[in-house]
Specification:
Bound molecules: flavin-adenine dinucleotide
Structural class: alpha+beta
Strand content: 15-25%
Largest sheet: 10 strands, mixed
CATH topology of the largest domain: D-Amino Acid Oxidase, Chain A, domain 2
Length: 492
């Protein structure tokens, strides 16, 4: 992916694209990929980096959603399990099966969870990953050695899948570009262009040099997650609120607090939430929380009470209990909890409460897709493009993404490690800048590699060296290095 080449394709302001997508998270990337592979001329603009919003801060599970099963939302679980199967096939190497145990500390829990999870298995049908089953206490402890021994009756074993969210986002961007789309990070949409009451394009500005573009298109899709209403208000200044953020944080700990390669799912903590302990890149991810009433932000801040909550609750299920000093990294993301606005004359609203994503179009033709989850983003992209084609009067063509293989780069050979405590190497910085549109230190340390998500101290240690190498590749000076280091450290 060559950023200069991509930018050059936006130069001609008389050109009319078929589909313009605003937002480069899971939803926007899936939409752009769906549109371009149907043969629509497609542009995607992301104000920050790909997945820099919510999409790099997920629990990193591709899952049917055991929680939805508990709520009786069978259709949603079935849809998610079908998409899970497709992602395992289409993004092989990026999405992998993961075994979970649900520990039982009361005798009836094994029967209760076993029955529910057997149904989960059946709903997956041919796309099932592995058999659900009962494990005794000894086998449970063999799989999750640090699980609390006292009172453990056994567990239910089931299967889901896990992934690296930022890497999958990049694979979608890469694949969309390979199919002819223009996909750009660090280009912000600053307004909508309207002609005769219809949305006919966007005004956009690059982040670093402030270059401005007018991009015309037959239809514009708003896929901006928790920022959805900002874009809607370019269209309808009085638009009511349609998305509310709910914050979820994760703590990253040493893998010894889990002890094995099997994840643990606590389906109901004492206050009724789900808690995951997941092995990820030789660390343990512990999450998550659900905090409403927070501000919309690209880099939300974890609250002290969220950190305390996770440490306290995880401790209750573990032999060796983590303390605050054991935290290697913390990340916070905002769920775009969506409610569709009332449909006005000319607009359409097709959501229902049982669905996790919402899709609607305004009177002037702005298509908005929000809510949902990483697991179902392909389906969301397909639905958004179906609607966009209808609204933009594009020739109707079927989606091709259900069987589309995503492009994953080859692993480079070994080179110098960037830090002894981090599993990344120098050649990965070079590839990030040369081939993956990394422009900032955060792009490299948070998303092309996951250094800052694995170990904040080690990341701070290697940041000057990484910034210096990036400056060399990007032709930047000492001042750029200092500014990048300052802004990166203040975001940590
Ligand atoms: C704590 C947590 C855990 C989760 N865990 C899972 C999980 O394990 N599995 C799962 O399937 N799902 C999970 N999810 C849900 C999933 O992460 C989200 O549904 C998904 O990432 C949302 O993607 P999005 O593209 O809609 O939003 P975002 O990723 O936020 O993308 C929106 C993008 O729009 C950009 N943007 C905003 N304004 C503009 C503008 N003016 N111009 C250009 N660009 C703009 C933003 O910069 C942003 O990058 C989790 C969510 C949270 C919060």
């Amino acid at each position: 992916m060559d950023r200069t080449e991509q930018l050059a394709r936006l130069e001609d302001s008389n050109e009319v694209w078929d589909v313009i997508v605003i937002g480069g998270g899971a939803t926007g990337l899936a939409t752009a990929l769906d549109a371009t592979t149907r043969g629509y001329r497609t542009v995607l603009l992301e104000q920050a980096d790909f997945a820099e919003g919510t999409s790099s801060k997920s629990t990193k599970l591709i899952h049917g959603g055991v929680r939805y099963l508990r709520n009786g939302e069978i259709g949603l679980v079935r849809e998610s399990l079908r998409e899970r199967g497709r992602l395992l096939r289409n993004a092989a190497g990026l999405v992998e099966p993961l075994a979970f145990v649900v520990p039982a500390y009361r005798w009836h829990e094994r029967i209760f969870y076993g029955t529910g999870l057997a149904l989960y298995d059946r709903l997956a049908g041919d796309l099932g990953i592995g058999r659900t089953g009962h494990l005794g206490a000894a086998e449970t402890r063999r799989r999750a050695p640090n699980l609390r021994k006292r009172g453990l009756h056994g567990s239910t074993l089931y299967w889901d899948a896990q992934f690296d969210d930022a890497a999958l986002a990049l694979a979608m961007a890469r694949t969309a570009v390979a199919h002819g789309a223009v996909v750009l990070n660090h280009v912000r949409v600053t307004g909508l262009v309207k002609e005769n009451g219809r949305v006919g394009g966007v005004e956009a500005k690059t982040r670093f040099r402030g270059r401005e573009f007018l991009v015309k298109g037959r239809v514009v899709v708003n896929a901006t997650g928790v920022f959805t209403d900002e874009i809607r208000r370019f269209d309808e200044p009085e638009a009511e609120e349609s998305v509310r953020p709910s914050q979820g944080i994760h703590l990253v700990l040493d893998q010894r607090f889990l002890g094995g390669r099997t994840a643990v799912m606590i389906p109901k903590t004492e206050d009724g939430r789900v808690l995951f302990l997941i092995p990820w890149k030789d660390r343990l991810l512990l999450g998550t929380t659900d905090t409403e009433g927070v501000e919309v932000a690209l880099h939300p801040r974890p609250l002290a009470e969220e950190i305390d909550y996770l440490i306290r609750h995880a401790g209750g299920y573990l032999e060796a209990r983590p303390t605050h000093d054991d935290i290697r990294a913390i990340f916070a993301g905002l769920r775009p909890l969506a409610k569709p606005p009332q449909a006005k004359a000319g607009g359409q609203s097709t959501s229902s409460l049982s669905r996790s994503h919402v899709l609607y179009s305004s009177e002037s033709g702005l298509v908005t897709m929000t809510g949902g989850k990483w697991t179902t983003c392909r389906q969301m992209g397909e639905e958004a493009v179906d609607r966009a084609a209808e609204v933009g009067g594009l020739p109707l063509r079927p989606s091709r993404t259900a069987d589309l293989t995503l492009l994953v780069p080859e692993e480079g050979g070994p080179s110098e490690a960037i830090d002894p405590d981090l599993p990344y190497q120098r050649h990965q910085i070079d590839r990030a800048v040369r081939e993956e549109m990394a422009m900032t230190l955060g792009d490299v340390l948070c998303r092309r590699t996951r250094c800052a998500f694995l170990d904040e101290k080690a990341t701070s240690r290697c940041a000057p060296k990484v910034a210096a190498r990036m400056a060399e590749l990007l032709g930047r000076d000492e001042r750029w290095i200092e500014e990048e280091l300052d802004s990166f450290e203040s975001a940590l």
